[in-house]
């Protein structure tokens, strides 16, 4: 076997694929739920210009998961606690964009440093450490699935309740506030939901590449539509395709899931961007998602 054939076999190997497929039933179920949550939350991340916040939250989510791994407790729970602490801090300290970015810039290295410290103290399997950075959803067990699905359901219910006022507040916060919409309260609630979404996404692609599930699908959808119905729908479809496709491809290889998810997600974005550029050249304009005021 040549070097190229060996590399290709490592990336794509479908030997005994049918037998392995039965082992990822839980992963596929959880992946669909996380795609739904990430795709919907990502719409507001793009609308409210929060990609940097997503990355900041993921660092403390990583620290929480690392602490849980070191202490031998539920890793998903630790990840959620870390995310909620980060989201709450950003929500309280970052009322304005400048203050928010400063708070995130402070939290990111702190969370990453804590995570590295906890992993250095952990003496267990190296695969567990690596999984926190690159994801390991191919091995979702029943307790993890319960945590992930339960948290996903909570986020979906809250997003459904605040969707319309949050959309109004994101499009024109001054007018929304003048009409009695609790803009600051909604922002804080959404930051908490974003924290939960990031914690869930970390379980798929790890802390380093969480943007690919919470930001890229919505950004891709925004390149081709500004419809308040089609935008979240396409964002969810793109997120689910990325996760499910990544799981199915990773199953036939010895590599982590994250390279597959990120590649699919980026490919979708590139195609949508090209489609948007073609439409702009043809029709002379491009409709995009409403930008933050």
What do you see in this structure?
The structure is a single chain. This protein is mostly helical and 293 residues long. The chain has a domain at 26-208: ABC transporter involved in vitamin B12 uptake, BtuC, CATH 1.10.3470.10. The protein contains 14 helices and no strands. The chain has helices at residues 3-11, 17-21, 25-47, 51-71, 75-93, 97-121, 126-134, 142-171, 173-178, 183-205, 211-214, 216-224, 230-251, 258-283. It starts with a helix and ends in a 10-residue tail after the last helix. 47% of the residues are buried.
Shape: globular
| Class of secondary structure makeup | mainly alpha
- From N to C, what is the helix and strand string? HHHHHHHHHHHHHH
- Termini separation (Å)? 58 Å
Low-confidence stretches: none
Oligomer: single chain
CATH architecture name of the domain at 26-208: Orthogonal Bundle
Q: Helical proportion?
A: over 70%
Q: Which descriptors would you attach to this protein?
A:
single chain; 293 residues; mainly alpha; ABC transporter involved in vitamin B12 uptake, BtuC
Quick summary:
The protein has helices at residues 3-11, 17-21, 25-47, 51-71, 75-93, 97-121, 126-134, 142-171, 173-178, 183-205, 211-214, 216-224, 230-251, 258-283.
Topology diagram in text:
Elements: H1 3-11, H2 17-21, H3 25-47, H4 51-71, H5 75-93, H6 97-121, H7 126-134, H8 142-171, H9 173-178, H10 183-205, H11 211-214, H12 216-224, H13 230-251, H14 258-283
Helix pairs in contact: 3-8, 3-10, 3-12, 3-13, 4-5, 4-6, 4-7, 4-10, 5-6, 5-10, 7-10, 8-10, 12-13, 12-14, 13-14
């Amino acid at each position: 076997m040549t070097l190229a054939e060996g590399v290709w076999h490592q990336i794509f190997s479908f030997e005994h694929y049918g037998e392995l497929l039965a082992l990822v039933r839980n992963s596929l179920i959880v992946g669909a739920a996380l795609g739904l949550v990430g795709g919907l939350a990502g719409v507001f991340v793009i609308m409210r210009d929060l990609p940097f916040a997503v990355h900041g939250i993921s660092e403390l989510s990583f620290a929480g998961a690392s602490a849980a791994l070191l202490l031998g407790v539920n890793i998903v729970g630790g990840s959620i606690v870390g995310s909620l602490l980060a989201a709450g801090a950003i929500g309280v300290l970052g009322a304005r964009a400048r203050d928010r970015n400063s708070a995130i810039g402070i939290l990111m290295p702190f969370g990453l440093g804590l995570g590295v410290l906890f992993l250095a103290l952990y003496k267990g399997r190296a695969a567990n450490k690596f999984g926190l950075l690159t994801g390991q959803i191919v091995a979702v067990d029943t307790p993890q699935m319960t945590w992930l699905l339960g948290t996903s359901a909570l986020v979906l219910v809250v997003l459904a309740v605040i969707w319309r006022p949050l959309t109004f507040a994101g499009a024109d916060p001054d007018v929304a506030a003048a009409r009695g919409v609790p803009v600051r309260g909604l922002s804080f609630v959404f930051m908490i939901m974003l924290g939960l979404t990031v914690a869930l996404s970390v379980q798929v692609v790890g802390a380093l590449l969480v943007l690919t599930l919470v930001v890229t699908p919505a950004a891709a959808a925004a390149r081709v539509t500004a419809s308040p119905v089609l935008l979240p729908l396409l964002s969810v479809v793109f997120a689910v395709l990325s996760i499910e496709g990544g799981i199915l491809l990773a199953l036939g290889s010895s590599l982590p899931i994250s390279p597959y998810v990120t590649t699919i997600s980026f490919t979708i974005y590139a195609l949508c961007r090209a489609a948007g550029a073609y439409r702009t050249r043809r029709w002379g304009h491009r409709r995009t998602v409403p930008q933050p005021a």
